[in-house]
């Protein structure tokens, strides 16, 4: 429902009921719950986007393209071989899938600014976990801003995995929030190799704030749903592309 609202700006109970095969009463109840969370404004016969809606909160994005994200994560985790002793993660649903798969059987230092990923990894004895600190961005559970940036400026990592909201051969990699974009760029600068994880819907897409130019990305892992012509342009820009 929120995805349709983000796409169209408004939705009707009748259309949602037909598309989701749910009763109008169920749709109205769900709209009421979402309004209580300040994620939309109900209208007569439907709902319209609240002023703050420009990005689906992460808790509502977890089920989208789930199988594709899992395959991307499986391809990514193979990069954490014996030569890798430290990795960095930002937030996002695909990066979260990768963190869940991380099981090296050896000591590994992990730096992240994502609270949900930190919670998952904190109970794994082989993981030497560092959390950046910073201000919480509720939409993505990430810690961002000057405190996070200063932490990342003083570290050096072997490999960084980055989730993004868009990757384009001309515009580079981008996200919805300008403060998050700066923190993501600080994370990129801490490593010798940057691997972007992005499902096919992100390929050729430009979000509000640029994180970095395409030349700062070493590898992209995506899925078969990605636009082939755009992937060719990204390859031509010097990025290694893996389709999971």
From TrEMBL:
Q: Which InterPro entries match?
A: Carb_Metab_HTH_regulators, DeoR-like_C, DeoR_HTH, NagB/RpiA_transferase-like, WH-like_DNA-bd_sf, WH_DNA-bd_sf
List UniProt keywords, sorted A-Z: Transcription, Transcription regulation
* Domain HTH deoR-type: start-end pairs: 1-49
Q: SUPFAM superfamilies recorded for this chain?
A: NagB/RpiA/CoA transferase-like, Winged helix' DNA-binding domain
Q: What is this protein's name?
A: DeoR/GlpR transcriptional regulator
Give the species.
Actinomadura violacea
């Amino acid at each position: 429902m929120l995805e349709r609202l983000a796409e169209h700006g408004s939705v009707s109970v009748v259309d949602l009921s037909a598309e989701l095969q749910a009763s109008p009463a169920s749709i109205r109840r769900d709209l009421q719950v979402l309004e209580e969370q300040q994620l939309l404004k109900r209208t007569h016969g439907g709902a319209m986007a609240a002023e703050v809606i420009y990005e689906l909160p992460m808790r509502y994005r977890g089920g989208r393209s789930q199988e594709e994200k899992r395959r991307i994560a499986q391809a990514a985790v193979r990069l954490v071989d014996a030569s890798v002793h430290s990795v960095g993660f930002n937030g996002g649903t695909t990066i979260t899938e990768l963190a869940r798969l991380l099981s090296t059987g050896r000591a590994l230092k992990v730096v992240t600014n994502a609270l949900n990923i930190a919670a998952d990894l904190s109970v794994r004895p082989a993981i030497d976990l560092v959390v950046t600190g910073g201000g919480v961005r509720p939409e993505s559970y990430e810690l961002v801003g000057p405190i996070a940036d200063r932490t990342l400026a003083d570290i050096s990592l072997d490999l960084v995995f980055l989730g993004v909201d868009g990757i384009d051969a001309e515009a580079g990699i981008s996200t919805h929030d300008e403060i998050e974009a700066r923190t993501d760029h600080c994370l990129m600068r801490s490593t010798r190799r940057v691997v972007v994880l992005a499902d096919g819907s992100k390929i050729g897409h430009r979000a509000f704030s640029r994180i970095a130019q395409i030349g700062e990305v070493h590898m992209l892992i995506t899925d078969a749903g990605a636009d082939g012509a755009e992937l060719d342009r990204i390859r031509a820009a010097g990025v290694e592309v893996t389709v999971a």
